[in-house]
Amino acid sequence: MFGQKSTMVDRAQALPGRDAPTPALPPHEVLGTPLTPPYPEGSAIADFGMGCFWGAERRFWQLGAENGIITTAVGYAGGYTRNPTYDEVCTGRTGHTEAVRVVFDPEKISYTDLLRVFWENHDPTQGMRQGNDVGTQYRSAILYHDDTQKAAAESTRDAFQPILTQGGYGAITTEILPAGEFYFAEVYHQQYLSDTKNPHGYCGVGGTGESCPVGVARTGE
């Protein structure tokens, strides 16, 4: 079972999905802002795959509106199936990774700042898994929206690799690919670890750094 889920599905064999998108989503449980477009003028979008998207999203919304975070949301990206469901993604037959979308104000926080959070809050060397979560849906990915984001993703990857190597980790397996369609996940996944939904919920990704073995490595040190 794990072998199938850890092998990327071919486009021709991927589930077809459906035309209907996820039903309308309520505002952000913590920030109170809309999860879906249109976003405020001047804002920018960053999409990341870091394993379990619950903890990844929490790590980014915790940066706060005062630091330029406009909204965050979780969804499915990097695959083939149109408007997939969570159950479909879990089969490994959609090609999608669990992703977090971060809408931010580049006047207050840079894309490079967000990349630092990305690299420091998961293990980007594990291939088709993240910790005990096994499968293509948990792979590490940066889905860039323009050439500037692509260049920043590649340069920070190259800067972080020596730190990982020094710590005894292997080669970075993070995919860096163009951002295609981002399919928003079901409402119950959005801000799943918020105090009003699951205050005692657990996800090994995106915590204080203690739950992630490379979370103690800091790119500026």
Automatic annotation (TrEMBL):
Which UniProt keywords are given for this protein, alphabetically ordered?
A: Oxidoreductase
Renumbered residue ranges of the record's region Disordered: 1-32
User: What GO molecular-function term can you cite, just one?
Assistant: peptide-methionine (S)-S-oxide reductase activity
Indicate the residues that form the catalytic site: C52
What biological process terms from GO does the record include? Answer: cellular response to oxidative stress
Top class in the EC scheme: oxidoreductase
Note the InterPro entries from the entry. Answer: Met_Sox_Rdtase_MsrA_dom, Met_Sox_Rdtase_MsrA_sf, MsrA_MetSO_reductase
* Name recorded for this polypeptide: Peptide methionine sulfoxide reductase MsrA
Question: Highest lineage ranks of the organism?
Answer: Bacteria, Bacillati, Actinomycetota, Actinomycetes, Streptosporangiales
- Gene name tied to this protein: msrA
